[in-house]
User: Which sequence fits this backbone?
């Protein structure tokens, strides 16, 4: 990203990069809060299927509205580049916690107990996450676990059982 702004959002730092998107920690001056912005990279802009899948991911997360799923605040395009704005999870990821050492059993039980109903809610709506891993479990400032990254989710009950990303 060549500038420190993306639309109205002020980019702070890059926090992650994957095959389909780059995620930035940003500031939303309108609401005076930190956010995470997931941006479809320029290299994928030529493929209309990536745009469709990216938009479908935002709508899928928006449909779920569960207290243990990272909420979407906004999505759209800025200069032709699609983006999704989500709650910023300042508590890091489960992967980062595991990398520091073993989790106490009580903490692992607490995480699973919080996330299982979120997965159940997604499954009840016909959405299968398909990428549940420690890097996609994020924590807020209070230590609450959240599911993130529905980028390769599968819509199990759709006529085509469409995948949200390739492969």
Assistant:
């Amino acid at each position: 990203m060549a500038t420190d702004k993306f639309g109205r959002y002020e980019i702070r730092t890059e926090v992650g990069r994957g095959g389909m998107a780059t995620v930035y920690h940003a500031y939303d001056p309108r609401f005076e809060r930190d956010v995470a912005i997931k941006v479809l990279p320029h290299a994928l802009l030529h493929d209309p299927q990536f745009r469709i899948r990216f938009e479908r991911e935002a709508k899928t997360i928006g449909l779920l509205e569960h207290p243990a799923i990272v909420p979407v605040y906004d999505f759209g395009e800025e200069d032709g580049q699609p983006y999704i704005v989500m709650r910023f999870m300042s508590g890091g990821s489960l992967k980062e916690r595991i990398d520091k050492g073993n989790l106490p059993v009580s903490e692992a039980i607490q995480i699973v107990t919080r996330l299982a109903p979120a997965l159940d809610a997604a499954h009840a709506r016909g959405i299968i996450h398909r990428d549940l891993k420690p890097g996609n479990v994020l924590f807020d400032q209070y230590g609450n676990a959240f599911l993130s990254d529905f980028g390769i989710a599968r819509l199990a009950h759709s006529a085509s059982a469409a995948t949200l990303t390739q492969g």
Notes: Helices lie at 48-64, 94-99, 105-124.
